[in-house]
Write a structure and sequence with these properties.
Blueprint (H helix, E strand, L loop, with lengths): L4 H13 L13 E3 L6 E3 L5 E2 L14 H13 L6 H8 L3 H12 L3 H17 L1
Antiparallel strand pairs: 1-2, 2-3
Helix pairs in contact: 2-4, 2-5, 3-4
Bound molecules: zinc ion (ZN).
Length: 126
């Protein structure tokens, strides 16, 4: 499993971008990395972004380790887990657990592939 939120971000960058950041706003691959942060500034449209923009992880202010744990649980249990139980397992409130389930169940095919990779990766480590 991942030690920190940043490790999760690095892993997501790897599976989503394969080493080359892609601006989620204009599609440019020319970006400048912020120092010590997993954020980038697009050299074409000058917007800053991280790998979570445009994914189900965007704008949740939730540690990605919790996200990953939730995804693993949902996949292992074939998405058959109550909001209450999930909230307890990953120690978030019910509103957050509900949001996670909602997003995981409604992912796009591209993101479904990402989730599959995450599950595979975590499963192989634990
Ligand atoms: Zn851009």
């Amino acid at each position: 499993m991942f030690e920190t939120h940043e490790d999760c971000l690095a892993y997501l960058e790897e599976i989503r971008w394969n080493g080359t950041p892609i601006c989620p706003y204009c599609g440019s691959t020319k970006a400048t990395k912020y120092k010590k942060e997993h954020r980038y500034r697009c050299n074409s449209c000058f917007t800053s972004y991280s790998v979570t923009v445009g994914t189900l992880f965007h704008k949740t202010h939730l540690d990605l380790r919790k996200w990953f744990s939730a995804i693993l649980l949902l996949y292992k249990l074939n998405r058959d887990i109550s909001i209450r139980k999930l909230a307890k397992e990953i120690q978030v409130n019910r509103a957050t657990a509900s949001l996670i389930v909602d997003r995981v169940l409604n992912v796009s095919p591209e993101q479904s592939e990402i989730l599959g990779k995450i599950v595979q990766f975590i499963s192989s480590k634990s």
